[in-house]
Amino acid sequence: MKRILSSPATPYPQGTLGTNDNEKGDTMDTIEILEAIGKNASYRHASGERLLGILSAMDASESLERTAKTGDQHHLAVEFGQEIVSMVQSQVQGGYEDQEDDEPCPERDGEDERTPLSPDS
Amino acid sequence: MNTPSMLSEPPSRRGSIACVGLGMVLGSHLTPLARSHIEQADVIFAALSNGIVEKWLERMHPDVRSLQPYYGKGDKSRKVTYQEWVDVMMAEVRKGKVVCGVFYGHPGVFAWSPHAVIEAARSEGYEAHMEPGISAEDCLYADLGIDPGRRGCQHFEANQLLFFDTRINTDTYLILWQTGLVGDRSFKRLRTEPAYRQLLVEVLNKDYPLSHEAIVYRGATLPIEQARVRRITLGELPNVDITAEETVVIPPLSRPRRNRAMMARLDALDRMFENPG
């Protein structure tokens, strides 16, 4: 999964491609590439075509390039496994109070529809 | 002068917990303070939106324990899961560990367990803290160009509109979270069928025409993605595929009416305070 970061031949701003150790030619894997893109304004908001150029210059994996091209994260299952990529359940974490149906709601009981409460009520 | 005992003797180790938000986009949203909480903790518990993001978190700390396995496979209420999350985090706090719960987005928004674990820890005398993160709501405002201060903004978990008689103010934006599983009373399902969204539309149709715009929004989680924005009508809502992580935004229908009686009272106050003599 490790990739060698190729030298940027490039129209990309100096000092922005591979902002960390990458400028020294260190290897970057997919997580490191994603982090590098995530914290670089020039990369994060690059057009689709330019982003693909950036990924190519970073020697990104084929599955990462395909994910960027299609917007479908499931291509990353090749690298990380289906279980990791399908992990979406945590996005459902509840939120509203699960009150009992008959629990009294003092602000509403006996109140006319759409009538604001007066300070005295 | 004697050295204060607090400097010469290490205090007995007390557990603590901090719940922090990782933000929504890998690499983009993590605050320096949240990262510091992660790095200084003894143990990390993680409930994140994306397995890749969890892999990223594992680079920051050697002991990251995913809360993901506590979910059932459609056979277990999420309420049970969320209580288990609290229990497993509190068990480490009671052992005297510095615990960090890492949640996607903001740990206190549409998330039961972080609030519950902080309350539990404080009730037992432990230090507990919540550190905010960039939430899906924050991303929504940026991506859709909505300023909640301009017209007002109401947020509901979509189920609230079905389970309770909820008043809607059509002067403001209406933002409905977790619409993709609206109507699920079992807390086990991750998606519900179009017929359930039809009931939601019936409720909304009391205040909005079916031709009114509805925006289906999904924020990015990986930095190689962009937000997905689909503009449909309210009447189309049951028949479009909506996932659990998508949010429905209903723009304002009406304009607020000026409160003339209150304007007159304000005028009177202005006259009194601008010309006190």
Automatic annotation (TrEMBL), chain A:
Basic and acidic residues compositional bias, start-end: 105-115
Protein name, UniProt field: Uncharacterized protein
Disordered, as annotated region: 1-26, 91-121
Organism: Oleiagrimonas citrea
Origin: domain of life: Bacteria
Automatic annotation (TrEMBL), chain B:
GO molecular function terms listed in the Swiss-Prot or TrEMBL record: methyltransferase activity
Domain of life per record: Bacteria
Pfam families linked: TP_methylase (PF00590)
Gene3D superfamilies linked to this entry: Cobalt-precorrin-4 Transmethylase, Domain 1
Domain Tetrapyrrole methylase as annotated: residue spans: 17-237
CDD domains for this protein: OphMA_like
Protein name from the UniProt record: Tetrapyrrole methylase domain-containing protein
Annotated source species: Oleiagrimonas citrea
